[in-house]
UniProtKB/TrEMBL annotation:
Mediates sugar transport across membranes. It comes from Lates calcarifer. GO terms for cellular component: Golgi membrane; plasma membrane. This is Sugar transporter SWEET1. Belongs to the SWEET sugar transporter family.
């Protein structure tokens, strides 16, 4: 097994593991018959991101990217369906889902109609997916600032932090092997934000050790 194939398997295992952390929220919803205290937008935005990268993988003919994002999209769709089933805000969830569907449709129409096939379409799509992924990794920084101020890490998920670190690292190494900056650049922030979270756990975990276990939340 060469290095690229090894990294490919690492990307698949770690990324599916990261997506599977949502099963904790799914279990909570089933047990409580409620979606209270569980965020919906991370499921929706992750699904859109998966579908974008799936299209990128198809254009690039990269089976690793295709497989990972098929699994990811299916899991996110499952989470969305279960959330809709248990939430009291069905109208809001439906409107947000329809808006996301419109964005996805418009994006697909733009890339397939206005951009020529080949490198131009692949580059534009890679850039768009990269911007979305970087935004998702950086969006929780304001929450991390609040954690520093409060000294409370209960809203952080340690398993998700570990999964994000190994997932981002494996994709960066995989992208370097392929010389694909659209894979390397958007996953680099995931490494740094994970390191920040590890520091917060080390710094504040002893303060909260008498508190309940970490609450699963996409931060």
């Amino acid at each position: 097994m060469d290095l690229l194939q090894l990294l490919s398997w690492a990307c698949i295992v770690f990324t599916v593991g990261m997506f599977s952390t949502g099963l904790t929220d799914l279990k909570k919803m089933r047990e409580s018959k409620s979606a209270d205290n569980i965020q919906f937008l991370p499921f929706l935005t992750t699904c859109l991101n998966n579908l974008g990268w799936l299209y990128y993988g198809i254009l690039k003919q990269d089976q690793t990217i295709v497989l990972v994002n098929i699994i990811g999209a299916l899991l996110q769709i499952l989470y969305i369906i279960m959330y809709f089933n248990y939430t009291k805000q069905k109208r809001l969830v439906m409107s947000e889902t329809l808006a996301a569907g419109m964005v996805l449709t418009c994006g697909w129409f733009y890339f397939t109609t206005f951009l020529p096939e080949g490198d131009t379409r692949l580059s534009q799509l890679g850039f768009t997916c990269s911007v979305v992924t970087v935004s998702m990794y950086l969006s929780p920084l304001t929450d991390l600032v609040q954690i520093v101020r409060s000294g409370n890490v209960q809203c952080l998920s340690f398993p998700l932090t570990v999964a994000t670190f190994f997932t981002s690292t494996s994709w960066v190494l995989y992208g370097l092997q392929l010389n694909d900056n659209y894979i390397v650049v958007p996953n680099t922030p995931g490494i740094f934000t994970s390191l920040i979270r590890f520091y917060l756990f080390w710094r504040f975990a002893s303060v909260n050790q008498s508190s309940p276990s970490y609450k699963s939340m996409q931060i």
